[in-house]
Amino acid sequence: MKNILLLGGGGRECTLAWKLSQSPLCGSFYIAPGNAGTSAYGTNLPVSYNDFEAVKKVCLDKQIDMVVVGPEDPLVLGIYDFIKNDVALQHIIVVGPSKEGAQLEGSKAFSKKFMERHNIPTAAYREFTKDNFEEGVAYIRHAQPPIVLKADGLAAGKGVVITSSIEEAVDAFKSMIVDAQFGAASSKVVIEQFLDGIELSVFALTDGENYVLLPEAKDYKRIGEGDTGLNTGGMGAISPVPFADAEFMNKVVNRIVEPTVNGLKKENILYKGFIFFGLIKVQGEPFVIEYNCRMGDPETEVVIPRLQNDLIDLFVKMESGQLNEVKILHDTRAAGAVMMVAGGYPGDYARGNVMSGFEQVKGSLLFHAGTTNKDGAVVTNGGRVLAITSYGNNIKDALSKSYENAQLINYTDKYYRKDIGWEF
Ligand code: AMP
Ligand code: GLY
């Protein structure tokens, strides 16, 4: 039995909490900070996951054996190293990479150089800072639009700008470098070739030597139907992905997943945790758009329900370097998730709207995201508030179940996309 602390409080963490709590290996289970949904599976603690001293206190007080890190920030800030360098904590299993490994997500320039060193297919690029700003402008002037600009550091998912003209690209470049649009995160900018294709998300769990692949997924990032409007954290997800056939997935494994895991090992970068490959399929060939050092959200809401293995057992085998002994079992059913959000998201939105209708939902899984308990009610507490996941014989069936149930959930200014999975 393992006493577990799960860090995070979104839909991803609610899904992980649902899964972890089903394991016979689950001892005492805490979520920091959690949400109104996670409290059904464990005890929520009002602790900020970026406050490592507070996390340490929980680990000691609650005799934690395993820390599962949901979001990227604590990983990029070095929670793995914090725990492993503390004699009172170093016995704890940490699911997530070292600070250096988390640079795969924490620095676009780091990840591009890593891919270059290991011949992993990705868009051609250059990196610039204020020191070679004029060179950057000249580079843009010779580039063919659309031109992709990326703030090097974490920018809450907003650091990528795709421009359709040279002037627009120069303006965006100036805003990032000269006006520090994303603060220190954009003091370095990666400018890269635009790849025209269809995106998907592939997930591996690695023990630093071996890896297992989880079911793949596709998320829907734009706020509007038909993939229009602003980018969001993700408005829905499906798994499996129909265009990720065996031939394509073989290329993904051989050209991307294995070179990544082997590259980390060769470079002595400690990495025990999830690797999220944000991929794009261009004329049948896979390219890496980005790495993340954690699971995706809302991809987790469809990937984890399709994973039949015991998750705690996987994490224990990850710690002991035995993932080569594991056979991953997929639920053969499809899963589809619809994300319900607060009206106005991803711009300004209200919090504190009372939510109702949960008990009427039948045949779907409800994974809370931005929700909290207030005066005996569940209220909205974020932009993305609730993921409704369903299984089905195919993606259409799964999603129609989620859509039926989405109608039964009520709160002021509710919004969700009605066309998740529309192309399949
Ligand atoms: P990222 O934050 O790196 O995931 O980028 C956000 C989104 O921008 C991606 O999901 C893609 O839709 C898009 N994007 C990023 N890089 C490229 C690229 N080189 N070509 C085309 N689209 C891109
Ligand atoms: N859904 C994309 C992400 O988690 O970054």
* Fraction of residues in H or I helices: 25-40%
Q: How many distinct domains? A: 4
Span between termini: 42 Å
> Low-confidence segments, ≥5 residues, pLDDT <50?
none
**What is the CATH-assigned architecture of the largest domain?**
2-Layer Sandwich
Structure, explained:
The protein is α+β, with helices and mostly antiparallel strands and 424 residues long. The chain folds into four domains: 89 residues, 3-Layer(aba) Sandwich (Rossmann fold), CATH 3.40.50; 70 residues, Dna Ligase, domain 1, CATH 3.30.1490.20; 128 residues, D-amino Acid Aminotransferase, Chain A, domain 1 (2-Layer Sandwich); 82 residues, Glycinamide Ribonucleotide Synthetase, Chain A, domain 4 (Alpha-Beta Complex), CATH 3.90.600.10. Helix content is 27%, strand content 28%. It has twelve helices and 24 strands. The strands form six sheets. Strands 12, 15, 18, 20, 23 and 24 form a six-stranded antiparallel β-sheet that branches. Helix 7 packs antiparallel against helix 8. The model has no long low-confidence stretch (mean pLDDT 96). The site of glycine has 6 residues, from loops.
